[in-house]
Specification:
Layout lengths: L4 H6 L3 H11 L6 H32 L2 E2 L12 E2 L5 H12 L4 H10 L1 E3 L2 E2 L13 E2 L11 H16 L8 E6 L2 H4 L8 E5 L7 E3 L3 E3 H10 L14 H7 L6
Antiparallel strand pairs: 1-4, 2-3, 3-5, 6-7, 7-8, 8-9
Helix pairs in contact: 3-5, 4-5
């Protein structure tokens, strides 16, 4: 089974490729398809990492302060690439909570952890624009264990859903919601529903959409998808988004 997906993806047929992979469902895990499908997801992740690196460089150039979403506004490294343990960690996620969508596994192995929350000198409301945050490996929390965190969340979910036939699927938490990013009490965190054997998974936020669709939406706005601030401030995400790669 093959659809020349990688060649077509690189040639610009990205939407068609994602549609075909979605229609295949869990058949993307078949031995004669899996390798090429994973290569497509890896290519997506490389393009996403490029976009993240470009956005971070542009924000630094603009004097942006990356900081925690708290009163202290502790400085934060915006992008931490995958650690040497990322490949093994992705395998653990797959074994423990899997199947895990292939796009998320590619993100762990190729992109790393991203935190764009902060303050722009010409855009005071930047933190309320839902800046991109995707944290899977937990590199921003060196004194904590993401494995322990996910195990704990899974046990809590199991206890809550044991007698609830309508319980939502377990989610790997990936980011605070847009209100918590702005240091305001909000709702539950954003996450990825698992298990899911598809090539791309569902990113659960205020609305639920495929992970790649979410990323494309965010990158179209330079990493800040919600419109906040004055008309002059709205030009900042447009500049950040210039020439970013569609996924």
């Amino acid at each position: 089974m093959t659809g020349d997906w990688l060649v077509r993806y690189r040639a610009g047929e990205r939407g068609q490729v994602w549609d075909e992979l979605a229609q295949l469902g869990d058949a993307v895990r078949d031995p004669d398809a899996l390798e090429e499908v994973q290569l497509v997801c890896d290519e997506m992740a490389r393009r996403a990492r490029h976009n993240v690196e470009v956005i971070v460089q542009r924000l630094i150039r603009d004097g942006y302060r990356f900081h925690a979403n708290d009163d202290e506004q502790t400085p934060v490294i915006p992008h931490i690439p995958p650690t040497p343990a990322a490949v093994e960690y992705a395998a653990w996620l797959q074994e423990r909570f899997g199947p895990v969508p292939l796009t998320l596994l590619s993100w762990v192995r190729i992109v790393g952890d991203v935190w764009l929350v902060g303050t722009h000198p010409d855009w005071p409301l930047s933190a309320s624009a839902d800046p991109l945050v995707i944290q899977v490996e937990g590199s921003h929390y060196p004194h904590s264990s993401m494995r322990f965190h996910y195990e704990y969340e899974w046990e809590q979910w199991r206890d809550r859903s044991a007698d609830n036939p309508n319980a939502r699927p377990f989610q790997l938490t990936l980011a605070p919601d847009r209100y918590h990013k702005d240091n305001v009490s909000g709702g539950g965190p954003y996450g990825m529903a698992v298990p899911d054997a598809h090539a791309d998974g569902l990113f659960v936020a205020e609305t639920t959409m495929p992970f790649v669709q979410y990323l494309n939406w965010v990158f179209l706005r330079g990493g800040f998808p919600f419109l906040t601030g004055s008309s002059d401030a709205l030009q900042i995400p447009d500049a950040l988004a210039e020439d970013l790669l569609p996924l």
